């Protein structure tokens, strides 16, 4: 079972920062999950919340900041003093680093603007230019975005639909929106569906799995990957095929 680091090494470093990604990559993970949104001036940045308040020293909607303004914010001190000065990364910055790593990028597109097409095309183009398309899975709760991608014939990207609850006709739905994989919030209800979906050969990735007991359950039910805040523990539980990662252990 694959281990995907949720927003990086979230238990030990400020989420969705380079520090969290480098730290996660020091373990033998298969992938990194991160969240992408666009700034006021259309730059794709890696950030989870709609507002910057919780994880930076700033305040306000992320979409109301230009990229330059966002870069003034401290995205590390809220977590621990030693991460002071950590920046909100641009997607470009992450790609520059990740292209040299043997890690799959699980890019969650957060709530897009109504006219998302141009921004999405530019962002996917950026990933293609970094030679990362074949190792990128685009996931989102906004499923029309996936159907749009399918129509654009961007076949080298994997597409995953995100859901908080299981769907009775999950596979039929997946086919109807032309997705390849299901990313689902782990729950008692969801667990009943994992074996059926796995039997159909569809990648099933469950989030957010931080407890050993839940991880072992997922493994038993043939879940493809777990998305976890604790890649350190989970990679020790489920050793991954050897990969070449750097030295940034926290
Ligand atoms: O990709 C799964 C998970 O990241 C979705 O929820 O809120 O952590 O972005 P959230
Ligand atoms: Ca996410």
Low-confidence stretches: none
* Biggest beta sheet summary: 8 strands, parallel, barrel
Give the cofactors and ligands. Answer: SN-glycerol-3-phosphate, calcium ion
CATH architecture annotation name: Alpha-Beta Barrel
Overall shape:
globular
Mean pLDDT: 95
CATH-assigned fold name: TIM Barrel
Number of strands: 9
Please report which band the strand proportion falls in: under 5%, 5-15%, 15-25%, 25-35%, 35-45% or over 45%.
15-25%
The radius of gyration is 17 Å
Number of helices: 10
Strand line-up across the major sheet: 1-2-4-5-6-7-8-9
The SSE order reads: EHEEHHEHEHEHEHHEHEH
Roughly how many Å apart are the termini? Answer: 23 Å
Q: What is the CATH superfamily label?
A: Phosphatidylinositol (PI) phosphodiesterase
CATH class: Alpha Beta
Number of domains: 1
Oligomer: single chain
Description:
The protein has 250 residues and is α/β, with parallel strands linked by helices. The protein has one domain (2-48, 91-237): Phosphatidylinositol (PI) phosphodiesterase (TIM Barrel, Alpha-Beta Barrel). The protein contains 10 helices and 9 strands. The protein has helices spanning 18-25, 67-70, 91-98, 117-129, 144-151, 170-176, 188-191, 194-199, 212-220, 231-237; strands at residues 2-6, 31-38, 44-46, 104-109, 136-140, 158-163, 181-185, 204-207, 225-228. It has an 8-stranded parallel barrel with strand order 1-2-4-5-6-7-8-9. Strand 6 (158-163), helix 6 and strand 7 form a beta-alpha-beta unit. The longest helix has 13 residues, at 117-129. The two termini are 23 Å apart. The model has no long low-confidence stretch (mean pLDDT 95). The site of SN-glycerol-3-phosphate has 10 residues, from strand 2.
């Amino acid at each position: 079972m694959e281990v995907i680091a949720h927003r990086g090494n979230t238990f030990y470093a400020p989420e969705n920062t380079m520090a969290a990604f480098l730290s996660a990559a020091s373990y033998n993970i298969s992938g990194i999950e991160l969240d992408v949104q666009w700034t006021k001036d259309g730059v794709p940045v890696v950030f989870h919340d709609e507002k910057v308040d919780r994880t930076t020293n700033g305040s306000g909607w992320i979409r109301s900041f230009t990229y330059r303004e966002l870069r003034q914010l401290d995205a590390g001190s809220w977590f621990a003093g030693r991460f002071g000065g950590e920046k909100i990364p641009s997607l470009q910055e992450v790609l520059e680093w990740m292209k040299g790593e043997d890690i799959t990028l699980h890019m969650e597109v957060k709530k897009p603007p109504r006219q998302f097409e141009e921004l999405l095309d530019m962002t996917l183009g950026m990933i293609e230019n970094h030679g990362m398309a074949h190792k990128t899975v685009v996931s989102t709760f906004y499923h029309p975005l996936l159907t749009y991608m399918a129509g654009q014939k961007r076949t080298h990207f994997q597409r995953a639909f995100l859901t908080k609850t299981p769907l009775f006709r999950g596979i039929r739905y997946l086919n109807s929106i032309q997705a390849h994989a299901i990313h689902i919030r782990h729950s008692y209800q969801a667990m009943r569906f994992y074996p059926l979906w796995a039997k159909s050969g569809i990648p099933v990735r469950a989030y957010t799995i931080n407890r050993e007991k839940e991880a072992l359950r997922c493994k038993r039910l043939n879940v493809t990957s777990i998305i976890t805040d604790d890649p350190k523990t989970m990679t020790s539980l489920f050793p991954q095929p050897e990969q070449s990662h750097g030295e940034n252990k926290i």
